[in-house]
UniProtKB/TrEMBL annotation:
Main location: secreted
InterPro entries: Cystine-knot_cytokine, IL-17_chr, IL-17_fam
Pfam family, one: IL17
Signal sequence coordinates: none
Keywords of the record: Cytokine, Secreted, Signal
Protein name stated in the entry: Interleukin-17C-like
GO cellular component labels: extracellular space
GO molecular function: cytokine activity
Family membership: Belongs to the IL-17 family.
Length: 144
């Protein structure tokens, strides 16, 4: 017989909330959600035409810059995760994109809980899963 839980009754979720509270993708997700202006700016960002010295975040000073996007999945806990999106196809070398090098996402595996319907009474089953979360971008040579 399957073990079904209501969302509020699930002990895995109570423990997960505490474990996830301070992880970077979750902290950034909260910031993106609460800062509509920043989210709008990040959504509109594209690859800079030239590398410009910034005093800001490393995501904008890198030769492989990235922006943060809010990923929402109601069948995952946590439902909101910030994910990095590379802004350029190539890397910024000497102020311009150099297509001898490519901008590639860097992934970190994050433990999440996936929910699926368990019965007709509106209860769910939660199972541990691993999700690859892009956390930044780096410059790489082409694959041979």
């Amino acid at each position: 017989m399957e073990h079904c839980n209501n969302y509020e009754e699930n002990g895995k979720l109570r423990g997960a909330r505490q474990a996830y509270e301070k992880t970077t993708p979750i902290v950034l997700a909260e910031q993106l959600k609460n800062d509509a202006g920043r989210r709008k700016r990040n959504a509109e960002m594209s690859c800079p035409e030239s590398a410009v010295a910034h005093d800001g975040d490393i995501s904008q000073r890198a030769i492989s810059p990235w922006a943060w996007e809010l990923d929402v999945d109601v069948n995952r806990y946590p439902t909101e995760i910030a994910k990095a999106k590379c802004l350029c196809t190539a890397c910024l070398v000497n102020g311009v994109q150099d297509y001898n090098y490519f901008s590639e996402p860097i992934y970190s595996q994050m433990k999440v809980l996936r929910r699926s319907k368990c019965d007709r009474k509106g209860r769910w089953r939660y199972e541990v899963a691993w999700e690859d979360v892009p956390v930044g971008c780096t410059c790489a040579t082409p694959k041979s």
